[in-house]
Write a structure and sequence with these properties.
- The complex is a heterodimer of chains A (about 200) and B (about 120).
- Chain A is an all-alpha fold and about 200 residues long.
- Chain A is built from 6 helices and no strands.
- Chain A has a domain at about 60-85 and about 120-150 and about 160-195.
- In chain A, about 55% of the residues lie in helices and about 0% in strands.
- In chain B, helix 1 (about 5-30) crosses helix 3 (about 60-85) and helix 3 (about 60-85) runs antiparallel to helix 4 (about 90-120).
- Chain B is about 75% helix and about 0% strand.
- The chains are: A mainly alpha (about 200), B mainly alpha (about 120).
- The interface of A and B includes residues 49, 72, 86 and 142 of A.
Chain lengths: ~200, ~120
């Protein structure tokens, strides 16, 4: 038996002998999308994750979606670690009272020495890139959520590629990439003094 | 809370993070002289206008930090919830994830508030 796969079967020119009277073209074309077909089968988490993380076959809109989620998750992990790490300013996680000044300072200096190395600095530069991108691209999404920057609706052309970005939205997306690069360069200098010295 | 309100709060807290985060970034990065690094100025413990304790002793900056903590916690936890919902659209998974994220969010706010309040009082 011939399998349909993802391709739609074109009905024969004269289909009166195959399909009941009254069958429309879209009934025929949807015949392969029944409950057990590949088209209707829900995607597995692995498949969804793969298409979310590696959108190589998709447009810049999809890259924006992927980057927003990846940067969101990474910045969240950093935020959790940052809240825990800043607890060292007052002497660590066991301190729930106002500690003596010298104790807090000695504890902080010890942690500061541990954190002062190129690996953490490079990590912070990457976080700087991600925070800047997530912030500006998130601003674009917020504007779109409230209906701003969406542009006027227009007729969908049959052969045109699918688009969701308006010109302004596309500009804000590329602005977020540019500002993220600036943030990375600036933090590289502020953390390690690459350009100042 | 309905999905619509959660997403509205997501965007409102996002805007709040932009404002309070801008203050935080300004204090950490843009107060550093060009010929110095962060470790030479804002990572000092004390005795500098933008050293660690100086920032926490300033009530306005400390309040901004607390708002940033609350906004970011909600925004991050709700963001993770949305991503989990997209990846695994299962009601049981969502229920478990919701309580885990609420617990993590409460821990972050309590732990961060402790740091801010105690650092504000160290003399």
């Amino acid at each position: 038996m011939q399998t349909l796969g993802r391709q739609r079967r074109k009905p024969p020119q004269d289909s009166s002998h195959l399909y009941p009277r009254g069958t429309k073209l879209y009934h025929v074309s949807r015949k392969g999308s029944g409950q057990n077909s590949r088209i209707q089968r829900p995607s597995s988490t692995v498949t969804v994750l793969k298409t979310m993380l590696v959108p190589v076959r998709y447009s810049v809109e999809r890259w924006s979606y992927t980057l927003q989620r990846v940067t969101g998750v990474v910045v969240t992990l950093y935020f959790v670690l940052h809240v825990i790490e800043t607890g060292n300013f007052i002497g660590g996680p066991t301190v729930w009272y106002v500690p003596p000044y010298d104790f807090a300072k000695a504890y902080y200096e010890h942690i500061k020495e541990f954190l002062h190395n190129p690996i953490f600095d490079v990590g912070l530069v990457v976080i700087g890139w991600m925070v800047a991108f997530h912030a500006i691209n998130g601003l674009r999404l917020t504007l779109a959520h409230f209906g701003i920057t969406l542009g006027r609706p227009s007729r969908v052309e049959p052969e045109a590629p699918p688009r969701s970005f308006s010109t302004l939205q596309r500009a804000i997306f590329w602005l977020s990439i540019a500002l993220a690069v600036f943030a990375a360069v600036y933090s590289l200098n502020a953390l390690m003094g690459v350009f100042a010295r | 809370m309905s999905e619509r309100r959660l997403m509205l709060l997501h965007y409102v807290t996002g805007l709040g993070i932009l404002i309070t985060g801008a203050v935080h970034i300004w204090v950490v990065f843009f107060t550093v002289p060009l010929d110095q690094t962060i470790w030479e100025t804002t990572m000092l413990f004390d005795n500098h206008p933008f050293a660690i304790l100086s920032v926490y002793r300033n009530a306005l900056l400390a309040s901004t930090l607390w708002l940033l903590l609350v906004f970011t916690t909600f925004h991050a936890m709700n963001g993770i919830r949305v991503i989990i919902m997209e990846l695994i659209p299962d009601e049981r998974v969502m229920r478990a994830a919701k309580w885990l994220l609420i617990a993590l969010g409460v821990f972050l706010v309590v732990y961060g508030t402790r740091t801010i309040l105690i650092a504000h009082s160290i003399r």
